[in-house]
Amino acid sequence: MSDYDRLLEALSNLTCTWVTGSVRDVVGLCVTVIGLEGFVTIGDRVAIKARDGRSVQSEVVGFQGAVARLMSFGSLEGIGPGCEAKVPLNRREGGLSVSEDWLGRVVDPLGQPIDGKGPLLPSFKRQPIQCPPPNAASRARLGERIDLGVRALDTFTTCRRGQRLGLFAGSGVGKSTLLSMLAKGAECDVAVISLVGERGREVREFIEDDLGPEGLARSVLVIATSDSPPLMRREAALSAMAIAEYFRDRGKSVLLLMDSVTRFCMALREIGLSAGEPPATRGYPPSVFAELPRLLERAGPGYPDQGMITALFTVLVEGDDQNEPVADAVRGILDGHIILDRKIGEQGRYPAIDVLRSLSRAVPRCNSAEENDLTRRARAAMATYQRMADMIRLGAYKAGTDHEVDEAIALMPRLNAFLSQGRDERSTRAEAFGQLAQIMQTLPQNAPVKAA
């Protein structure tokens, strides 16, 4: 960035005139402000001066007549009736000042570095946080197959560049561990990782143990821990998407990992209810299910002269109910879903991917006929074993009664070993299909294995 560009950036940030209002009420997470009518709109940033002198950045989330409803990006301590609230009359361009200098850095949802490595070099052109997805009729089609580094995914839910997959699981089933395997082993130019409402103690472990120096060098991390205000948790998802779009527009193959969409929706629920929206399905206001596709549709292929955003979104399934509202909505938008099952994890097989309930909508067109036949036969064998599992465990099944069941019993130990993978173990797609082919050689090509 030249000195001239930095000067223009500094001049654009100068504020000549302020419009001032005052706080009327503070109820829960919401602050109502009077005196700004005619000057602010939804999404505008307002600075509230607390009684201890600090400035608290807030955002307009709704109106009740002429009264503006605001929510804060920080703590509301020290804010009360009569506190000054002001907004610049010459509003600055919103968005993030993203540049190549962001690679290898950890930032908060507002784009401020939190890794202790010093300030980030600004870019003259700011990347908007909220923007529409590429035009549906003009954006590129999905690209070639991409190695995710996890055998179960590369074979049974093969992913293409620009595809969007969901990782669905309850708490403690291994979503974050699987995400760390993808962050370190997946094939991409740039990885953008968003931890939305994550446990604070896990951040350094993820950076130092899971990513490591090599993985961090190609990554940008956006962090909003569970104690962050709802606006910050919402912004963590939007900022990560904006950063991914910045690198996509420059022709990069971007891997976007977001953990989790559910916490993003919970933040939207808190914002909507505080703004006065009525609760609907399980307490989620209607705006949540309107905002969700706006975020998810931004991932995927760009225009033909741009790169692609391959995205994996984790979904925290409440009570292991795969049909709860957020999971159901996300599953209908994305290009495939990967189910992590608690029972599989309890058996000691990690990652605990339920292959029979997982699918990638791109598989039929991206794998060869031989590969599709291989995975079909493996799925059929697993389905046969699952159907007879209770009888086998009870000893009620007698060997030789059913040829297909005998085949499935013989294959399952090797298939379970194939589907198990250590968090530091990386596998390519070619290696994974080769191993699966060796396992399935014991099953003749024309064996009529029956699926459940």
UniProtKB/TrEMBL annotation:
<keyword id="KW-0963">Cytoplasm</keyword>
<keyword id="KW-1278">Translocase</keyword>
<keyword id="KW-0375">Hydrogen ion transport</keyword>
<dbReference type="GO" id="GO:0030257">
    <property type="term" value="C:type III protein secretion system complex"/>
</dbReference>
<keyword id="KW-1005">Bacterial flagellum biogenesis</keyword>
<dbReference type="GO" id="GO:0016887">
    <property type="term" value="F:ATP hydrolysis activity"/>
</dbReference>
<dbReference type="InterPro" id="IPR004100">
    <property type="entry name" value="ATPase_F1/V1/A1_a/bsu_N"/>
</dbReference>
<comment type="function">
    <text>Probable catalytic subunit of a protein translocase for flagellum-specific export, or a proton translocase involved in local circuits at the flagellum.</text>
</comment>
<keyword id="KW-0066">ATP synthesis</keyword>
<dbReference type="InterPro" id="IPR027417">
    <property type="entry name" value="P-loop_NTPase"/>
</dbReference>
<dbReference type="GO" id="GO:0005737">
    <property type="term" value="C:cytoplasm"/>
</dbReference>
<dbReference type="GO" id="GO:0030254">
    <property type="term" value="P:protein secretion by the type III secretion system"/>
</dbReference>
<keyword id="KW-1006">Bacterial flagellum protein export</keyword>
<dbReference type="Pfam" id="PF02874">
    <property type="entry name" value="ATP-synt_ab_N"/>
</dbReference>
<dbReference type="Pfam" id="PF00006">
    <property type="entry name" value="ATP-synt_ab"/>
</dbReference>
<dbReference type="GO" id="GO:0005524">
    <property type="term" value="F:ATP binding"/>
</dbReference>
<keyword id="KW-0653">Protein transport</keyword>
<dbReference type="InterPro" id="IPR005714">
    <property type="entry name" value="ATPase_T3SS_FliI/YscN"/>
</dbReference>
<dbReference type="InterPro" id="IPR003593">
    <property type="entry name" value="AAA+_ATPase"/>
</dbReference>
<keyword id="KW-0813">Transport</keyword>
<dbReference type="GO" id="GO:0009288">
    <property type="term" value="C:bacterial-type flagellum"/>
</dbReference>
<dbReference type="GO" id="GO:0046933">
    <property type="term" value="F:proton-transporting ATP synthase activity, rotational mechanism"/>
</dbReference>
<dbReference type="InterPro" id="IPR040627">
    <property type="entry name" value="T3SS_ATPase_C"/>
</dbReference>
<dbReference type="Pfam" id="PF18269">
    <property type="entry name" value="T3SS_ATPase_C"/>
</dbReference>
<dbReference type="GO" id="GO:0008564">
    <property type="term" value="F:protein-exporting ATPase activity"/>
</dbReference>
<keyword id="KW-0547">Nucleotide-binding</keyword>
<protein>
    <recommendedName>
        <fullName>Flagellum-specific ATP synthase</fullName>
        <ecNumber>7.1.2.2</ecNumber>
    </recommendedName>
</protein>
<keyword id="KW-0406">Ion transport</keyword>
<dbReference type="GO" id="GO:0044781">
    <property type="term" value="P:bacterial-type flagellum organization"/>
</dbReference>
<dbReference type="InterPro" id="IPR022426">
    <property type="entry name" value="FliI_clade3"/>
</dbReference>
<dbReference type="InterPro" id="IPR020003">
    <property type="entry name" value="ATPase_a/bsu_AS"/>
</dbReference>
<dbReference type="InterPro" id="IPR050053">
    <property type="entry name" value="ATPase_alpha/beta_chains"/>
</dbReference>
<dbReference type="InterPro" id="IPR000194">
    <property type="entry name" value="ATPase_F1/V1/A1_a/bsu_nucl-bd"/>
</dbReference>
<feature type="domain" description="AAA+ ATPase">
    <location>
        <begin position="161"/>
        <end position="345"/>
    </location>
</feature>
<keyword id="KW-0067">ATP-binding</keyword>
<comment type="similarity">
    <text>Belongs to the ATPase alpha/beta chains family.</text>
</comment>
